[in-house]
Write a structure and sequence with these properties.
With about 220 residues, the chain is an alpha+beta fold. About 35% of the residues are buried. It has two domains: about 5-150, no CATH class; about 155-220, no CATH class. Helix content is about 25%, strand content about 35%. The protein has four helices and twelve strands, in the order βαααββββββαβββββ. The protein has helices at about 15-20, 20-25, 45-70, 155-175, and strands at about 5-10, 80-85, 100, 110-115, 120-125, 130-135, 145-150, 180-185, 190-195, 200, 205-210, 210-220.
């Protein structure tokens, strides 16, 4: 199994009071995950952001696995985060309009380890002041993982879909040259990348929430 999954949460769109209710967050967090919050700097990361951090990790993991297991259903509590590592002196930074990178070495990321059934997965997440972005892989090395997040003016669904594809295609052309890349969905709803008329071996992942769009993919030589 190769590839990545990604997810974005616009923190401006969440309901903090509702998120802090057990009836709500118990549908996302398992009982074993709640103690992980005590490892965080509570002044920096409020509980509602912690809940949505884990949501973004689990949603990313689902996107990765569902590509290989089309019948998979998303049940957040079955994706269990075992470990989170937050950098010392972690600070929430301001998001600029466009962030793109390969790997997470130059970014202050929260590193996670999680399981789903027999699968062991790894995550990298960044919490900005107004958003959370996560990328998940089945390998602990993210050095060849390309990812990006961008804000757009029009959050309508049709525009989100158009803009996120253009965002990804521009990055792919920067890396691989000006090929005729296209992004379509397979019969199970997963995005796939075509070059000319043939499917490539590059699995891509797309996400959007409100006025935010993002992608991730594993770069091949």
């Amino acid at each position: 199994m190769t590839g990545t999954g990604n997810d974005i949460v616009s923190l401006g769109a969440i309901n903090a009071a509702r998120t802090n209710q057990y009836k709500f967050y118990s549908k996302i967090l398992s009982d074993s995950e709640i103690p992980l919050y005590n490892e965080f700097n509570l002044a920096v990361i409020p509980f509602e952001n912690f809940v949505w951090l884990l949501w973004s990790v689990k949603e990313s993991a689902y996107k990765l696995l569902q590509r290989h297991e089309p019948a998979l259903l998303f049940t957040p509590v079955k994706f269990v985060v075992k470990k989170l590592q937050i950098p010392e002196n972690y600070a929430i930074v301001k998001f600029v309009a466009n962030v793109e990178a390969t790997g997470f070495e130059n970014n202050s990321s929260i590193n996670g380890l999680m399981s789903f059934g027999q699968h062991v997965l790894y995550s990298r997440s960044i919490i900005y002041r107004n958003l959370i972005v996560s990328v998940v892989s089945n390998h602990d090395s993210f050095e060849n993982t390309c990812w990006g997040v961008k804000s757009i003016d029009d959050p309508e669904q049709e525009n989100q879909s158009k803009e996120v594809r253009l965002f990804l295609l521009n990055r792919l052309k920067q890396i691989y040259g000006d090929f005729d890349f296209r992004i379509v969905k397979n019969p199970h709803g997963c995005p796939i990348l075509l070059k000319e008329t043939e499917e490539t071996s590059i699995p891509v992942s797309l996400s959007h929430h409100e006025n935010l769009i993002g992608y991730s993919f594993l770069k091949h030589d």
